[in-house]
Amino acid sequence: MAEIVSLHKDKDEAGGILLSMQDEGVLRLTLNNPPANALSIALMEALTAELDRAGSDKSVRVVVIAAAGKLFSAGHDLKEMTAHRGDEDGGRAFFEKTMRLCADLMLKITHLPKPVIAEINGLATAAGCQLVASCDLAICTDTSTFCTPGVNIGLFCSTPMVAVTRAAHRKQAMEMLLTGETIDASTAKDFGLVNRIVPKEYLTQVVMKYAATIAAKSPLTLKIGKEAFYRQIEMPLEEAYDYAAQVMVENMLNVDAEEGICAFLQKRHAEWKGEA
């Protein structure tokens, strides 16, 4: 396994707030902002920078976002935000910066030409739940929990709502947003927030198996498919079929589709040449 690298390390910190490790096409990014892995400005900037790098790095096929400690992420750093209420504008500029950066981060995950898998062990709340919902796949432990609790403190989870309502069923998403109550892993799977639930001791093993399976596919095909998935899902049915049909035509004409089909017919392993 490749060496773990500490990123965006402050001078008073023993380790970086984001840890990076890459092995055989899989880039693992580990939130390391204890105790709650809050999505501070620094952590969101670090994540965004790493995703930018991953997007242009041909050696990266799949990205995994995990977390150190007992929580996946408790969302925005409320202490950091509250500290700016004393600013001349009451904190407006800082709040706007925080929400814009968060939105850009979530969009970066969606637009990344590589699949992103969330590996959740522990609580994912508010913007932490938003991060889970924004990833392409999510795998959690059987003791993980999820919530959008802003309503409990007078702050409706409006930005987490964007990702959650696109991952969970509409009424279940509204239930989470209106009650602010915590749901367990089984309920999160029923709602559509996560794909798989596994025992804690097997979490990383299962996630990395998924990542390795996906990393073995054509990177060009994955790029085409991921972009098409998110574009068509917002379209009316007929428009979606028209768009998807054109994507299939263009996909058929690219080098990896030709190679993959020939390899299948010749009963051999494909050798991918296309780049994401």
TrEMBL record:
InterPro entries: ClpP/crotonase-like_dom_sf (IPR029045), Enoyl-CoA_hydra/iso (IPR001753), Enoyl-CoA_hydra_C (IPR014748), Mitochondrial_ECH-domain (IPR052377)
Protein's GO biological process: fatty acid metabolic process
GO molecular function: hydro-lyase activity
Pfam families associated with the record: ECH_1
Keywords per UniProt: Fatty acid metabolism, Lipid metabolism, Transit peptide
Cell cycle is among the record's keywords: no
Coiled coil: none
SUPFAM superfamilies registered for this protein in UniProt: ClpP/crotonase
Domain of life: Bacteria
Function: May play a role in fatty acid biosynthesis and insulin sensitivity.
NCBIfam families documented for this protein: PRK08139.1 (NF006008)
Family: Belongs to the enoyl-CoA hydratase/isomerase family.
Protein name: Enoyl-CoA hydratase domain-containing protein 3, mitochondrial
Source organism per UniProt: Allorhizobium borbori
